[in-house]
Structure formats: structure tokens, C-alpha cells
Write a structure and sequence with these properties.
alpha+beta; four-stranded antiparallel beta sheet; five-stranded antiparallel beta sheet; 255 residues; globular
Length: 255
């Protein structure tokens, strides 16, 4: 509210108070980073993500958030290096496998748009492959569990963990109904040739927090239009699930 009114000093003061109240928890820090990005204060968001990773080095989603912050800040070379560190990370189990797949796509999006601006010779060239799609949506939260995600395509066609491929060509990977942690609560929807209409984003909010002292849950929706193409557009929105319960329709993307 205060940031929107141009009172940035007051907004910053309140942000520090909020971080202190969260007692340095990763969910509180991650939410503050989301808000900093929303304010276009990318240097502060980057600093917060690095702080989280200093004690949680294997959190692939936070590393992805860091890479995306570098991208938004215009530091494309560092964004690619950060994405690549996720892809080459030595993960010993299934956790984060879908995150790596999605990070690979984002790394190639940056390379497609800026490949002549920096050196990429260190990257395994078998991983450099452009696979453009019309629409790509990722859903995540400051918490590692976010509940069931789904995209409702034009014609009321549901794309989710139970129906991961649709007749329209939509594809879903990530958070399932019950086994959230295998994806860190991160999911992706993509469609190569999007049909005209509304793409509605829904989430199951039954697991929302109930303790008033707990850091509130925010959902972050990242939308790419014309992904990996020259005219690629990125939009990020935040949704507060405070006092929400049940199946919540967060937003819609028009194509």
C-alpha cells in the first residue's frame, strides 16, 4: 500500500519489520523477495534469494527464482549461469526433476534472445535447443506445498496432474494432488499452439495456514507469452491466500 502511494521509505521500514516478525524463516524471506521483485527492486530481491540459499543450497526453486530475478534485472549472463548451475546440480532423488526440466526451458529462452551478448561455450551444447511455445505459465509459492494446481483451457478443458496432456496440446508438469514435495510445490503449464480464449488458473487452498502468527501464503504466477520467441513477454503476479479456503480461481490469461 505504502509503496503504491510513493512512500518507499515507509514501505521499506514495514518490510524490515515483516522480515523480523517472520524470524528469518525461509517462507518469510522468500515472500519479501517476491514483493521486492514486484517493486522492481531486483538488487534487494537477489540479496534475499542469496541469503536463503546460503543455508539451503539445494533448494532448486529458490535458485530458479534467483535466476529469474537476474533476468528481469537485465543481467542475462548471470541468469544463464545460475540456470545452468541448477541443471547440473547433483540431485540424488526425484525431488526437483520437473524443476530442472522447466529451468532448462527458461535458460534456452534467455539464450534465444541474448545468445550473442555473452559466452555460452561452457554449456553442454546438447542442452541448447529452442522449443518455442505460445503460452507458458508457472505456479509456485513462498511455501513448498501449495495444493493442487490446474489450468482451465478454453472450452473448459482441465489440465492438471490427473490430466497432464489435453487435446489442445496443453501440457502440465509439477505439483500433484498429494505428493507436493516431489516438485517443491512448483508446476508448469505450456501449450505450443494456443487456441484463442481464456486460460484460467485455479488452486486448491484447503491447506492454507490457520495460525495467525504464521507467515501468509502467497502464490506467484509467472506467465510467458511467445516463450523463447523474439517477441516474448513476461508478466508476474502475486496472490495472497490469506482467508481463502477451497478451490480458488486466481487469475486468467487471455490469448
Amino acid at each position: 500500500f505504502f509503496f503504491g502511494k510513493g512512500k518507499t521509505d515507509k514501505a521499506q521500514e514495514l518490510m524490515y519489520n515483516a522480515i523480523e516478525l517472520s524470524r528469518g524463516s525461509s517462507v518469510g524471506l522468500r515472500l519479501s523477495a517476491y514483493l521486492y521483485e514486484n517493486w522492481k527492486w531486483f538488487d534487494k530481491a537477489i540479496a534475499v534469494y542469496k541469503s536463503i540459499l546460503s543455508s539451503d543450497t539445494n533448494n532448486l526453486v529458490v535458485k530458479r527464482d534467483l535466476a529469474l530475478a537476474y533476468f528481469q534485472a537485465g543481467n542475462f549472463e548471470t541468469a544463464v549461469k545460475t540456470y545452468y548451475s541448477i541443471i547440473t546440480a547433483n540431485t540424488q532423488n526425484q525431488y526437483g526433476s520437473n524443476v530442472k526440466e522447466n529451468v532448462l526451458a527458461e535458460m534456452n529462452a534467455v539464450i534465444a534472445l541474448h545468445k550473442n551478448e555473452f559466452d555460452i561455450s561452457y554449456i553442454n551444447q546438447n542442452l541448447v535447443k529452442i522449443l518455442p511455445v505460445d503460452l507458458r505459465i508457472t505456479i509456485e509459492s513462498n511455501y513448498s506445498t501449495t495444493g493442487k494446481h490446474e489450468i482451465i483451457e478454453p472450452g473448459n478443458i482441465v489440465c492438471n496432474s490427473k490430466n497432464p496432456k489435453t487435446k489442445n496440446g496443453g501440457r502440465y508438469t509439477g505439483a500433484s494432488d498429494y505428493n507436493y514435495n516431489t516438485s517443491y510445490g512448483f508446476s508448469e503449464y505450456a501449450v505450443k499452439n494456443a487456441v484463442k480464449g481464456r486460460y484460467r488458473i485455479k488452486i486448491n487452498a484447503y491447506n492454507n495456514y490457520s495460525n495467525a502468527s504464521t507467515v501468509p501464503m502467497y502464490i506467484r504466477v509467472v506467465t510467458f507469452k511467445n516463450f523463447q520467441k523474439e517477441n516474448m513477454k513476461l508478466e508476474i503476479k502475486l496472490f495472497d491466500l490469506d482467508n481463502q479456503y477451497g478451490v480458488v480461481e486466481l487469475d486468467e490469461v487471455k490469448w
